[in-house]
């Protein structure tokens, strides 16, 4: 593998190049030094171009000679074009594992949007390390100190890719990791279907569920150095929260995933990674989802099996048990929709913290019906069962909330197979769950 470093020979870039060399030596990668001359320079001629090219190559070779060691291979490349496009293209050609640039080390023409660094982050298919303060990273790569890492953690594929890179960093040297999750309390309560509390912005039940799920996404962390999850509820922007936390925790490096949004999507949602790159007081590693292979086999331990108690709905239950190993659990769920008046789910948000669940004869009867659907061989296979009857403003919403609250690995439900006018008039709970759930969904068609 290789590391691509873009340089414009500025003092900041020269300092960053030395840190890039130390990092490449630590990882065992080839270091590619790339300088890009832009199109459209005024007053150019063939002879002046050749003179300039010769001078730039000499500077690249001098820098490479300074950085080369017995255990570090350095190659030089002089290219012409738009710097961000050339760097991204060269990284793809040499199968780079990382692009390193110094913050504002290269300037863009006025007609191009954003600076070179931000556009490289936007387009690269591999992680981009933006060096603002190279010394702590260089000292860590030499084994002289531990690295203090602030990891932006959420429930997205880019965040998972960022986690994978933090694991890689810890395999190279000691790293203390603060995994920070910024969220709005009301959104978290909706996610898990838990009532809001008038006494606090976030209930302990939701905090516990968030910490559980985020810790699971971190998984096993190799190497040495403490790792902990930091929950940060509030109405501020995620980028502002992470930058402030980086200052407070005296982080050496911020690691974030990037969606690499463009066009209307970027305008509407904004870019957290780009804002952090622009404002962070420390170096930033931006990791796209494409940077990490997802060819791993997930473990299924908990399956949610919603049923409307129709023959078709019941038919999916046996499939739910079929994919759970010994020691796993199946959660049988039935959702009661409101008949009229205030939707029960909305009423939950107004309930005081600690209110006991409401048990009615109807809910107790339905729970008993669900218990009657447990296959006799479930206990023999070592599969446990839990039954739940809940109220929901909307069945699909209640199903996805239950899957989050119970931390289920898969949702297994039957589809009535509606199509055409019937589907348009009645809708499809299975389709809505498929579209809204962040968890894998197994749809079982009626026999």
- The low-confidence parts are 105-113, 263-269, 341-356, 421-426
Strand order, biggest sheet? 3-2-1-4-5-10-9-6-7-8
- Cα-based radius of gyration, to the nearest Å: 27 Å
- Anisotropy-based shape: elongated
Return the structural class.
alpha/beta
N- to C-terminal distance: 51 Å
How many separate helices?
Answer: 19
The level of helicity is 40-55%
What does the main sheet amount to?
10 strands, mixed
Percent of sequence in beta strands: 15-25%
Number of strands: 15
Q: Report the average pLDDT across residues.
A: 85
Walkthrough of the structure:
The chain has helices at 11-27, 46-67, 83-93, 116-123, 134-141, 157-172, 185-192, 204-218, 238-249, 263-269, 272-279, 311-315, 317-322, 344-349, 361-371, 377-380, 395-405, 420-426, 429-436, and strands at 2-6, 30-37, 74-80, 96-102, 128-131, 147-152, 175-183, 227-233, 253-258, 283-288, 302-306, 329-336, 384-391, 410-414, 441-444. It is an alpha/beta fold. Strands 3-2-1-4-5-10-9-6-7-8 form a 10-stranded mixed beta sheet, sandwiched between helices. A 5-stranded parallel beta sheet has the order 13-12-11-14-15, with helices on both faces. The longest helix is centred in the N-terminal third of the chain and has 22 residues, at 46-67. The radius of gyration is 27 Å and the shape is elongated. The two termini are 51 Å apart.
Kindly summarize this structure in a few lines:
By secondary structure, the protein is of the alpha/beta class.
């Amino acid at each position: 593998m290789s590391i691509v470093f873009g340089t414009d020979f500025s003092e900041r870039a020269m300092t960053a190049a030395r840190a890039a060399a130390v990092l490449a030596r630590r990882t065992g990668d080839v270091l590619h030094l790339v300088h890009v001359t832009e199109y459209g320079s005024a007053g150019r001629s063939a002879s002046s171009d050749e003179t300039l090219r010769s001078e730039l190559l000499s500077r690249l070779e001098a820098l490479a000679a300074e950085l080369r060691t017995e255990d570090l291979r350095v190659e030089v490349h002089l290219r012409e074009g738009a710097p961000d496009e050339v760097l991204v293209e060269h990284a793809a050609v040499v199968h780079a594992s990382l692009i390193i640039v110094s913050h504002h080390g290269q300037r863009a023409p006025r007609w191009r949007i954003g600076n070179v660094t931000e556009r490289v982050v936007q387009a690269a298919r591999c992680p981009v390390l933006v060096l603002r303060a190279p010394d702590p990273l260089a000292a860590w790569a030499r084994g002289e100190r531990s690295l203090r890492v602030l990891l932006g953690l959420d429930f997205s594929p880019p965040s998972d890719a960022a986690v994978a890179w933090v694991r890689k960093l810890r395999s190279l040297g000691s790293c203390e990791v603060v995994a920070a999750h910024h969220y709005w309390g009301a959104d978290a309560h909706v996610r898990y279907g838990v009532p809001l509390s008038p006494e606090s912005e976030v209930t302990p039940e939701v905090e516990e569920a968030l910490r559980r799920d985020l810790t699971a996404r971190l998984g096993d962390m190799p190497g040495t150095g403490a790792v902990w999850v930091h929950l940060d509820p509030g109405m501020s922007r995620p980028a502002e929260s992470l930058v402030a936390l980086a200052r407070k925790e005296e982080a050496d490096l911020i690691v974030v995933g990037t969606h690499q949004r463009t066009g209307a999507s970027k305008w509407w949602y904004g870019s957290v990674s780009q804002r952090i790159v622009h404002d962070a007081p420390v170096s930033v590693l931006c990791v796209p989802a494409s940077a990490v292979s997802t060819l791993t086999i997930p473990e299924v331990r908990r399956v949610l099996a919603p049923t409307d108690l129709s023959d078709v709905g019941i038919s999916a239950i046996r499939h739910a048990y079929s994919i759970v190993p010994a020691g796993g659990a199946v959660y049988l769920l039935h959702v009661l929709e409101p008949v009229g008046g205030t939707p029960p789910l909305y009423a939950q948000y107004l309930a005081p913290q600690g209110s006991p669940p409401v048990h009615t004869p109807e809910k107790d009867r339905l729970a008993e019906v669900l218990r009657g659907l447990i296959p006799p061989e479930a206990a023999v296979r070592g599969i446990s069962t839990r039954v739940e009857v809940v109220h929901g403003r909307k069945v699909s919403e209640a199903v996805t909330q239950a899957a989050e609250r119970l931390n289920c690995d898969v949702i297994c439900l039957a589809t009535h197979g509606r199509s055409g006018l019937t589907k348009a008039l009645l809708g499809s709970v299975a389709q809505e769950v498929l579209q809204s759930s962040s968890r894998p969904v197994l749809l079982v068609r009626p026999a």
